[in-house]
């Protein structure tokens, strides 16, 4: 079940999180480090790194986390909305040595807020902090930007396994809060599950127009 | 050749393309043969016809044209070689039989299901699920909520009013198809098996099994009266049903979502196997139109290479090409499944084969950057049947929890992305100039291969590449076929004119005879025997004589 969609005592939350960002910023490395604790390892046993899951237990509540990798090539940019619909969270990754990749993150934020509103928990992640000497995105700029759009900022290194556990744990807690707030807003548990129905709730009268606009503004 | 083969003329003939039989089944010629006309074996025209055809080397056995029932009338390939009258009788009989069998099967099933429950209920009287009416109430509340769904991304027009004309046309085309009794037979056997499995499964649940069964049946019956609803409403009904059912199961199983999922899978299988025929690619949507558009689009993109898409698989490695073939087979197989979850499973199997191919090629786990282009490549190579209809069907009728966060859902989403990419792709997305892209699309040019030595060829059947030799051989074969096709067409045309001139000649002959022996109707003379020559030799009429006495 989705978005906290479970009733009764032993509640299990299921969350969908998408990884977005330019190619080569380290999306795949981050998730492989988190789920397999491996980096650039030729002996990785997993067949694929595009869909990975992780089970967590947070404050006695079970959480099933599904992490969706997305194709980062520019030619696939317009497909974003198909990937991130239904998402409870989005991890927007940039490479701290690459200013361009940070610009891309800004474009994603704009698009996501436009399409999904505040329902989605946004994380902005500056990866490769082990390359501090080559840093091209200032910490202060990045953190201020994140705050201005209601996102949280994290510093990570997939190579050194830094900041990754914290990133995912924090994100899960925030998504649980959102789900619980949702439940409360919808009253008792009876109608809560209707949220989980068939996924996306785009509370927008013209999702088509919004898609077109969102894609348009970011492809430029 | 193109135009001849692409028409519906060959539909259903199944016999050799170049035989006269196939031509006679074509609408043009069979229209010339009246459906029920007695043959005229000794007429001069038919003799002339058979002489002509022999000269062209085409021989028609008169018996092949006659009704297979031997009633003496002409048959027609469209009616499986029967004449119209015999065909109607035959078809009615088959239909009647089918209907009776279906009824018998339905009754048998009902009895079995009732019996199964009577035996399992007997001793225990356990609490069943909460009554349905409560949930009906909730359902109507929910309906008023504004919920925009996934479907909107894919079918912007599905909510617009159904296009009457198109629907009518689709309807015609559906009804035009002669139903194949063997196919419907097979599907009813499958439905039968699924129902039995469902009952068997529910028996293991004991307590709520009967209730689930009752509600599922009631739902299917209710849906039978809702055939006129649009696709979105049908989807809404099914999704509401899933929702209500899983809510109640959730309460019953005290929140164990795994157990709920297991039951819901069975429920989905049972109801969707039965609803499939009415809700897959319904006439109220333009699903079928989109299927055709996508199919044409993929065909037009036949020139796209693995390099243009940057697909990270090396098909030179046998194990890799093996996985590629399996992936293609899996995605094609999706169309043959009736349950949404089974269709999803095909996509998942396809994806696993793609991952294998990537892992063998790159020796590292595939990321989305590798996976999506490869999936696009597989879809382009497979050109899966009714791709849009299948995607819509899954989106509308799959149990939502599977589509949203599960692994199957991820692969399905990527398939949706692949289709969206294929629909929209332009020169830029393949790293081509707009001009090159246009030229390849219009077929004016085909992209040069990466290896210059393989292209251009030295000459026909140039020894360097076996593939090229094969291409030339095929081209030659095609040219030969085209010539033969032309000859056959010519034969058909002259047969047509023969038949027309035969008809004309008969008319002429009749006319001539009529002219030669005009029918004269003379007006009768005043006295009955006024023209009678013999009258002269008759004795004079008797005169009255008077006898005295
Ligand atoms: N130094 C350093 N390199 C990294 C880090 N994370 C990823 N990389 C490298 O960046 C490149 C791209 O990583 P990848 O995970 O494939 O990026 P993706 O395209 O966003 O999925 C690879 O060569 C990685 O080894 C990191 O934290 N530090
Ligand atoms: Mg990657």
Keywords:
heterodimer, A: 220 residues, alpha/beta, six-stranded mixed beta sheet, 7 helices, 6 strands, 20% strand, disordered N terminus, disordered C terminus, B: 549 residues, mainly alpha, 22 helices, 64% helix, binds guanosine-5'-diphosphate, binds magnesium ion, GTP-binding (chain A), Ras-related protein Rab-21 (chain A), membrane (chain A)
Greatest chain-chain contact: A-B, 59 and 56 residues
List SSEs of chain B in N-to-C order.
Answer: HHHHHHHHHHHHHHHHHHHHHH
Q: Outline the low-pLDDT stretches of chain B.
A: 1-58, 121-128, 130-180, 450-463
| Largest pleated sheet of chain A | 6 strands, mixed
Helix content of chain B: 55-70%
Strand content of chain B: under 5%
How many strands in all of chain B? Answer: 0
Instruction: Give a list of the ligands.
Output: guanosine-5'-diphosphate, magnesium ion
Strand proportion of chain A, as a percent range, falls in 15-25%
Gross morphology of chain A is globular
Shape, per Cα inertia axes of chain B: flat
Spell out the helices and strands of chain A N to C.
Answer: EHEEHEHEHEHHH
N-end to C-end Cα span of chain A: 37 Å
> Mean pLDDT score of chain B, rounded?
75
Radius of gyration of chain B from CA coordinates: 36 Å
With helices defined by DSSP (H or I, 4 residues minimum), what is the helix count of chain A?
A: 7
**Major sheet of chain B:** none
| Structural classification of chain B | mainly alpha
Low-confidence stretches of chain A: 1-9, 189-220
